Structures are given as C-alpha cells and as structure tokens.
From TrEMBL:
InterPro entries hit by this protein: Pirin, Pirin_C_dom, Pirin_N_dom, RmlC-like_jellyroll, RmlC_Cupin_sf
Annotated stretches, region: Disordered: 311-333
Family as reported in the entry's similarity comment: Belongs to the pirin family.
Domain Pirin N-terminal: 45-148
Positions of the Pirin C-terminal domain: 204-312
Source organism, top-level taxon: Bacteria
Start-end of Basic and acidic residues biased regions: 323-333
Pfam families, A to Z: Pirin (PF02678), Pirin_C (PF05726)
Protein name: Pirin family protein
Natural source organism: Streptomyces meridianus
Amino acid sequence: MPAVTVESTVTLPRLGEPDPVNGVQRPVRSVTTAPSGFEGEGFPVHRAFAGVALRDLDPFVHMDQMGEVDYAPGEPKGTPWHPHRGFETVTYMIDGMIRHQDSNGGGGLITDGGTQWMTAGSGILHIETPPEHLVLSGGVFHGIQLWVNLPSANKWNPPRYQGIEGREATLLSTPDGGALVRVIAGEVGGRRGPGSTFTPITLIHATLSPGARMVLPWRSDFNALVYALSGRGSVGAEGRPLHAAQLALFGPGDALTVTAAEHGDSRSGAFDVLVLGGRPIGEPVAHYGPFVMNTQDELMQAVEDFRSGRMGTVPATSLPHTAPREKPPPRPE
C-alpha cells in the first residue's frame, strides 16, 4: 500500500497530543463490517458505510473501498460515462492509477496517493477508466471513492474539478514517530490539507506501525469515522477491536484514538486507516443512484435533466467507453 510514503517519519512535523485534562475522548458507538460488491464495469468494492444511518454519516453519503485487487493483463476495469448531481465525489488512489474525464473539461491521471475532487453541483457527466497500458499489463488497483453531500444552497453551483497530486498532501507524524499521517483535506492539529471543500470536512489517511498509538484532536462540531483499509488494531480509549473493511463510528468529544496491533496481519504489518469527519448539514436527503438532493421532486427533475441532455455532453475527444453501457436511471417512484 504505497500511497505517499517517507523513508523516515523523524523529519516530519509532529502532531501535538490533545489536552489530557480538558479534552474529551470520543467513545466508539458502533463497528460495522463492509459487505463486498461490484461497481462500474465490474471492479470489486467494499461498501464502507453499509448499515450506518445517514444521520450519523452526515455530511457523507456513500463510500467504496475499490480493490485491493491485483489484475491480470486485460482485467482492469473502470466506469462508463454517467451523471452526478447535488454532491462531491472524492476519488483517492492509494495504489495503481485511473484516468478521469468530465463534461466540464476537468480530468487527468490519478495515481499513487493522488486525489480527484469533483464537485458535481448542478450536474455533470464523467468517466473513470484505467489507462490503456494498465489494461494491457494488469497491475494493482486500490482506492477510495467518497461522496460528500452539498447543502441545498450549493447543490446548483457550477461543476468544478480539483486534481491533488499525492506529494501535495500534508504529511505529519505522531509524537513518537509511529504513524505517518497524510492530511488530504481539512485540518488537524493546526495543519491543513490541500483539498478545497464546500462542506467543512477533514479527510486523513494514516499508516500506523505495529504497536503505534495515534491520538488526534478532532473538532467537536464534526462527526468522526475511522475505516480500516488493511491490518488490524483498535479504536477509542476503550480499545474496541477493528480490522480491515470495518468502520468505527464515534460519539461526541474532541479527540479520538487509533492503535495498531502489536502483530499486524497485513503484508507490511502496519495498520492503515482512513479518518474522516465533517460538520453535519442537517437537511433532508433524497438519494437515488447518482443523484443526491433534498426532495423526491428534485430527484425526478435530475432524471429528466439527464435524459434530456441538460447535465452536459460527452466530449468529442473522450476516453474509451464513450457511450454509457448502463441503462439510463429510471424515474423515481
């Protein structure tokens, strides 16, 4: 799991420990296991948020762990052209690469540790597909796609695209140097990541060495989630066990704890986790396929706008799979 790595964490800025007197450790409310499935043209995913209520995820809506899979030649897969409206998609490539293109002119190659942040807003078409040379050679594919909701006031904003190279992530370490902390968006311990978001969130990828402990200060007005990408360890001051493809939901407080097992079960022995949270929007959510709105009427309008071509058109010079292979989304009941 390369993402962005360093030879030694000793030279990195250190996160300060939260105030042990005035700080309140967030308790673990639940641990759920992500079921497996398939997305796009058939690549394997774990549905990270399955079984968790939307009110507890707010402002997040959906998250897939894509892979980790080692494709043989000819096997790599992507998605066909498809629409989105009303939210932001965040694609974080941990290992491997994928190309993105959208109907608003955004796009590029997302590779080891890079992030694509696409604000769908009022509506956009896009495609994510492996480069031709990767299809021919095969290779490892591992990443995350996260959907971040937009407040009703921003759902009709013009679409926009951010490409964040892996080297642009803010790199930190814990006081004892036992963890590499990559801040992709938001802020932790006074250090900000490069991602620019409409909805206030924090997104972190941390790699903990065996036995390492990470205590993060966390905004009390944000929710808090930890998803295990690989390895095993525990979460919370109470030491609730957590292993790969499991999600921990935390209760209120202003600090959270993640600890790696002394003897990990991943290839490297490390415990890799995604830590995320955001300020809840607190609005009704109407979610249907690739659209996230506030009402059923808005969903019906989104379907009609897509069918009539009002969400954009596939560029004349486009990536492979230029025509959608899936049926258009039906009208919501």
